[in-house]
Amino acid sequence: MHPFIPVGVGPDGFPRSPGRDEREEMAPQWQVARYDEGSLQRRPTVRSTTPHSLTSSPSSGGSISRRPSLRGPGAEATKRPPREWRSDFSMNGPGFLGNLLTRSRSRSFGGGGTYLHHKVTLNPYIRYVSSKPPVMYDLRRSANLLRFRALDHTLSSWDLTRFACEPPLQSMRLYHAQLPWYVIVEASNPAGVTLYDLFLAIQTYMLLPIEFGDFYNIEMNNDLRDQIAAAWAERCRTPEERNKGVFRVDYLMGKCIMEGIQKGRDGLWEIKTRKHGP
């Protein structure tokens, strides 16, 4: 059973779509603390800071109905992916269909122009080396659990004031091979993106609920949906977590332990992960 769980039942006995307040309550309430708060903490965040609205979130169950007169997932599955998906992404890999969809989607999500920084070097704390991964961070959880190989002490707020790269950038655009969304990192100060900015953005994007169109479109199939649902079921430890539905991190399908970042194509930065477990 896919994790599209209704949050209410109408007078007619059918699942009803939640109101705006209910949708906001179901959104991921995660944010790391400010530098002056001493450590990374989990605290409520303002809903408007999320990059996409939840007008039809699978976590709400608002699109699920037993009424035959309403359009079901079968019709939705023939639609193109949402415009928020990165233009070079295909769940089915390279090929005619993937290239056709890539050309037809918005080019504004590609990496170029502002993001071309050939002489930029990543901070050693996050620069990916396969033999000795510099980072250990379960993307399904809070950034409080982040660890750097280079540190021999508990992570502090001071450690996170370091720049993510040299020379510092005002913004960075990250991607993962299995995720259809970019992670956009903006500097919180005029000097440039810090490690704090970087992991705050990663945490925020990974713990966003998906929308209905992310789960049902022409790029998806039942096998992929089953794998994502399995990742959702494994991640959720309480009924409250399950009621929030699928998060973006579930599209990693268990490959959710971040090990670092490396320079990607066209000025982008690639998030490197591995399967969780020993």
Q: Give the CA-based shape.
A: globular
Query: Which residue ranges are poorly predicted, with pLDDT under 50 across at least 5 consecutive positions?
Result: 1-18, 26-72, 94-116
Strand order in space, largest sheet: 3-2-7-8-5-6
What is the overall pLDDT average?
75
Major beta-sheet overview: 6 strands, mixed
N-to-C SSE string, H for helix and E for strand: HHHEEEEEEHHHHEE
Helix proportion range: 10-25%
End-to-end Cα distance, whole Å, is 28 Å
Which structural category do the helix and sheet elements fall into?
alpha+beta
- Strand fraction equals 5-15%
Computed CA radius of gyration, to the nearest angstrom: 19 Å
Number of contiguous helices: 7
Total strand segments: 8
What does this 3D model show about the protein?
The protein is α+β, with helices and mostly antiparallel strands and 278 residues long. The protein contains 7 helices and 8 strands. The strands form 2 sheets. It has a 6-stranded mixed sheet. Strands 1-4 form a two-stranded antiparallel sheet. A hairpin with a 5-residue loop joins strand 7 (257-263) and strand 8. 35% of the residues are buried. Mean pLDDT is 75; it is low at 1-18, 26-72 and 94-116.
